[in-house]
Automatic annotation (TrEMBL):
<dbReference type="GO" id="GO:0015036">
    <property type="term" value="F:disulfide oxidoreductase activity"/>
</dbReference>
<dbReference type="GO" id="GO:0030313">
    <property type="term" value="C:cell envelope"/>
</dbReference>
<dbReference type="GO" id="GO:0017004">
    <property type="term" value="P:cytochrome complex assembly"/>
</dbReference>
<dbReference type="InterPro" id="IPR036249">
    <property type="entry name" value="Thioredoxin-like_sf"/>
</dbReference>
<keyword id="KW-0676">Redox-active center</keyword>
<dbReference type="InterPro" id="IPR050553">
    <property type="entry name" value="Thioredoxin_ResA/DsbE_sf"/>
</dbReference>
<dbReference type="InterPro" id="IPR013766">
    <property type="entry name" value="Thioredoxin_domain"/>
</dbReference>
<dbReference type="Pfam" id="PF00578">
    <property type="entry name" value="AhpC-TSA"/>
</dbReference>
<feature type="domain" description="Thioredoxin">
    <location>
        <begin position="17"/>
        <end position="179"/>
    </location>
</feature>
<dbReference type="InterPro" id="IPR017937">
    <property type="entry name" value="Thioredoxin_CS"/>
</dbReference>
<protein>
    <recommendedName>
        <fullName>Thioredoxin domain-containing protein</fullName>
    </recommendedName>
</protein>
<dbReference type="InterPro" id="IPR000866">
    <property type="entry name" value="AhpC/TSA"/>
</dbReference>
<dbReference type="GO" id="GO:0016209">
    <property type="term" value="F:antioxidant activity"/>
</dbReference>
<keyword id="KW-1015">Disulfide bond</keyword>
<keyword id="KW-0201">Cytochrome c-type biogenesis</keyword>
Length: 179
């Protein structure tokens, strides 16, 4: 059931099937996400992430530094479109903001490893939410991409549902004002 909710939730803006063999290389869809502060103050969900090869990260261990948490999937067109923008954002804010990209792909490592191998995303981590704990924590049917900014104490500042221009001045101003 949860998988069906996730598959249906992606703000794909495309007539493509929800889970094609690989993300299409067509023109990028327009960014539709907007900053939503209505969840401000909520505590970061408790979840353990896994990296290819088996390393783990407890989200609780990220406290002490602001975190931009991005839930994405290889089959989600806006997710794939914003990955290079998030990669540059991670480089630009290195040391001041942790950018955590977390795959919600049901096939986990099987999809995530080739995705990263085919792209130059050296500044982004390859975390996976294998049990979909984060998807459940954000309501079970959360649309992808979902990006949430947390302050150093692990409290939500704002979130964006849908594709977003992470290279734009609005994004940078919203991040800078929260750091």
């Amino acid at each position: 059931m949860l998988g069906a909710l996730l598959l249906g939730g992606c703000d794909r803006q495309s007539a493509e099937p929800a889970q094609p063999a690989e993300a299409p290389q067509a023109a990028a869809p327009a960014a539709t996400g907007t900053i939503d502060r209505s969840f401000a103050g909520r505590i970061m969900p408790a979840a353990d992430l896994t990296a290819p090869g088996g390393a783990t990260l407890s989200l609780a261990a990220t406290r002490g530094k602001p975190v931009l948490l991005n839930l994405w999937a290889t089959w989600c067109v806006p997710c794939v479109t914003e990955m290079p923008l998030l990669n540059q954002l991670a480089a630009d804010y290195d040391g001041r903001l942790a950018v955590l990209t977390v795959s919600e792909d049901l096939q986990g490592e099987e999809k995530v490893v080739p995705f990263f191998e085919q792209r130059d995303l050296a500044n982004l981590p390859r975390w996976m939410d294998e049990k979909n704990d984060l998807a459940v924590a954000f309501g079970g049917g959360a649309a992808l991409p979902l990006t949430v900014l947390y302050d150093a104490q692990g409290r939500e500042v704002w979130r964006v549902i849908g594709g977003y221009d992470w290279a734009g001045a609005t994004a940078r101003q919203a991040i800078d004002s929260a750091l």
